[in-house]
Amino acid sequence: MERQIIKIGLLGLGTVGRGVFRILQENRESIQQRIGARLEIKKILVRSLAKDRGIELPAGILTTDLNEITGDPEIKIVVEVLGGTNPTLDYVLAALSNGKSVVTANKDMVAEYGQVLFETAKKYNCDLLFEASVAGGIPIIRTLKQSLAGNRIEEVFGIINGTTNYMLTKMTREGSDFAQVLAEAQAKGYAEADPTADVGGFDAARKIAILASIAFNTRVPLSKVHTEGITGITADDITFANELGYVIKLLGIAKNRPDGIEVRVHPTFIPKHHPLAAVGDVFNAVFVRGNAVGDTMFYGKGAGELPTASAVVADIMDAARDIMQGVPGFIGCTCFDHKPVLDIGETFSKYYIRLKVADKPGVLASVALIFGNKEVSLKSVIQKGATGKTAELVLITHKVQEQNVQDALMDLKQLSSVLEVANVIRVEGEDNGHA
């Protein structure tokens, strides 16, 4: 007996689009056995019909007319791998409004326009699935929504940008400076010609906004994510981190507190013994702490043609199952809480602070006094590179509120003996292995 055929429209045939096409072709028999239906790509939207795609395609499958996908009643699932938000958002809303389930890998669109997307999907009884929008092939969205649904999620944190992880790994291993490593990352294709989204922390901010929204059942606007990149990390910071027993990673951190939720992205000192410290190169890793399951870690390739396409195809299969069972939209938006997103000044961390100061008596005492006046307790103080004129002070604080540290730094900058606040980096991961 001929199995049901579920037809798909693919928006885009770039790197991930080609990966999706390849997996659906190469694994079609096992996919058919798993879901009880045959998946068939009917049309692929592209900008140019003339461009060489590097893969063999059936005649007539390409189109430049969106309506051939969104207006075709045979097409039940639309897969968006175009990226960006303009005009992609309009394309996806058109698909949902025509009753088609949507699978997307688009973190920008989900992070910025999740509310309207989910409202539209609910209105038209469609699935909106976006596993590939965070951490490539690592199944973290599905895990939070389904496998850990019985938990109260307390923390989600991890390395969710491969480009910056590659760069910080190189800086740590080789002692290279930021500019040198960025050039290498661009030459290898790990970083874009304009690397701002990665090195500025904005890519990771979109991803942690998505993860926090799901984990804490609260919509997290991108504007509420405190975001710092790695452009200020120097070889000196890498060296001091190593001497103190840490490595530096760009982390996305989300914490569920009784008074609200923390959502932030920034460079972070983590102890060398922490599992995240061993995650190198372009790999991603996400920790999830639930009140029932305890600590779990998800590790793998966070980008690339086939890892990302793997997550897309898994979502396609879920959407197909829901269509066959007559329950599209079965697991919709889970943002039923309205917890406040706390300001960065309300968060608590330990801190690494590097100061350039005049090398003369009394400087350390005046620095310590200012920190004490702002209730910032110092765990350790090391003097480095004294020349008779200048020196560096490297301080590690005990856990303290961010606002207290910022207030202390404002006062320090008024001291004539403090020549520069060279860097301030939060320290996490020392309390029972948690961020």
Mean pLDDT: 93
- Tally of discrete structural domains: 3
Largest sheet: 11 strands, mixed
Quantity of strands, as a count: 17
Oligomer category: single chain
Per CATH, the architecture of the largest domain is 2-Layer Sandwich
Terminal residue distance: 54 Å
According to CATH, the fold-level topology of the largest domain is Dihydrodipicolinate Reductase, domain 2
What are the low-pLDDT stretches, counting only 5+ consecutive residues below 50? none
Percentage of residues in helical conformation? 25-40%
Whole-angstrom Rg:
24 Å
Structural class: alpha/beta
Task: Please identify which CATH superfamily of the largest domain we are dealing with.
Answer: Dihydrodipicolinate Reductase, domain 2
Overall geometric form: elongated
Beta-strand percentage range: 25-35%
DSSP summary: helix tally: 14
Pfam families: ACT (PF01842), Homoserine_dh (PF00742), NAD_binding_3 (PF03447)
Binding site for NADPH: 107
Family: Belongs to the homoserine dehydrogenase family.
Cofactor: a metal cation
Q: How would you portray this structure in words?
A:
- Its cofactor is a metal cation.
- It catalyses: L-homoserine + NADP(+) = L-aspartate 4-semialdehyde + NADPH + H(+).
- GO terms for molecular function: homoserine dehydrogenase activity; metal ion binding; NADP binding.
- NADPH binds at residue 107.
- The structure is a single chain.
- This protein has 435 residues and is α/β, with parallel strands linked by helices.
- It starts with a strand and ends in an 8-residue tail after the last strand.
- The strands form two sheets. Strands 7, 8, 9, 10, 11, 12, 13, 14, 15, 16 and 17 form an eleven-stranded mixed sheet that branches. Strands 3-2-1-4-5-6 form a six-stranded parallel sheet, sandwiched between helices.
- The protein has helices spanning 15-26, 28-35, 67-70, 88-97, 107-123, 140-147, 162-174, 178-187, 196-199, 202-215, 235-244, 305-325, 363-373, 402-412, and strands at residues 4-11, 37-45, 62-63, 75-80, 101-104, 128-129, 153-159, 226-227, 246-257, 260-271, 283-290, 294-301, 348-358, 378-384, 390-397, 400-401, 418-427.
- The model has no long low-confidence stretch (mean pLDDT 93).
- It has three domains: 4-137 and 305-325, NAD(P)-binding Rossmann-like Domain (Rossmann fold), CATH 3.40.50; 140-301, 2-Layer Sandwich (Dihydrodipicolinate Reductase, domain 2), CATH 3.30.360; 348-427, Alpha-Beta Plaits (2-Layer Sandwich).
- It is elongated, with a radius of gyration of 24 Å.
